[in-house]
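Table S2 (text version). Query chain:
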Amino acid sequence: MRPPNERLLSFSILLGIVLSLAVSIGMTVHAVIVGSVEGGWVYPYVESPDVSMVVAWLIYSAGAAATLLIPWHVAERRPWWTLVIWILVATALQWVLRTTAPYSLEAQFASDGANSFQSVAEKHDAADLLKYHGRVRLNAPLHVQSNMPGKLLLTEGLHLVTARTDVLPWLVIGISNLGALLMFGFVRDLLDSRRIALYAAVLYLFLPARTFFLPLMNTVTPLAVIACGWLLLRWLKTNRTLYAAVLGFALYGLVFFEPLPLVIGLLFLALALAAIGRGDIPWERFVAQTAATIAVFIGTAEIMTASTGFNIVRTFQSIGRHAMEFNATAARPYAVWITGNLREFALGAGLCQAVASAGVLLTWLSAPGSWRERLSHPIAATCIGLFAVLAAVDLIGVNRGEVTRLWIFLGCFYQIPLAWACSLRDSQLAIAVVLGVTAFHAAVGTTLIGFVVP
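Corresponding structure-token output:
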């Protein structure tokens, strides 16, 4: 079933490209404010353009578009090898871009102001971080205070590989880039298309918000979220209780690493309802297997508490209180950020992606046929779920500003509608232009704005 209004899709992609270029140019003259002065948080401009930066921007954006030079009959036949090549190219382009960035990766990673997980992990072993997490967290710098122990333990694990602060950031970048593999698997199972999956994977690699905040741990969070989504799709497709049970374990891992992405459950619910509507899984079986997911989650939590002393529920509640207290202390008013967060999120997820996602949703809502037929289509369910997640995470008001970093996990999923829209074209031109423009936007912001200030 193809959407009837492909002109709307084409217009939304073109509008996104124009807006993205306009914002990128605005950044070069420091005319675009990322954040809100009234809301109490703005990312500062720390550099002005010079010749070396412009060269790096062009190399980064042209290099991103050049990844699509692999013939598609080869890419679709050997997708995993294609992804490996793309990951290596993206990593190399990150190195080029960082040669003109205002701060080195080592300075960012070792800074308590930007990434306090490094210094705290150096002082404590894994057992202490779990058993005495409450005490460690309260006596630690701000980022550790507002986070679950997962990021600390990952940093601790990286120390087993090397203690060099000039190498550790590249390990984080490498791990974050591996999310392209998970994105491919998720989208392939969601839309039954290797081409769309490859498009979404390459867009993930050049996602602006992720580029801005490498090598911080927030860029690793999407791996846990996408892995949970992939398990859900495998469960819905196969009807196997094993996938439902493993999803319960994975959800515990997600909360252990970062609890905010639990709001992605609205997207998962939309996908599950669409699968039930299509007859992919009987609702009775879905309800029964959901009970297995919940049981495994609770069982994992109890085992962790008994074996390590770490109580995930108590820690989650404490971090929630800390977030609300921080908003009050920092004087970040709720009303300002209801709209401010949306603007900032669009800049981080990509203007092309945000506009195209709205275009795809409008296309399916206006398509002929019954509501059940329209809403049960995977891409329609994806768009509805994504906008439901965006509305929910915005309206609850936990995050007021800084969502470019905090909502990276959500921005990753907004690549999917754009990938789907681009796949309707017979040529690769649309995705190549979008990718180049997105990478250019990411490069300009990374080198001019102090998203991560040591």
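Notes on Table S2: The longest strand covers residues 35-36. The two ends are 51 Å apart (CA to CA).
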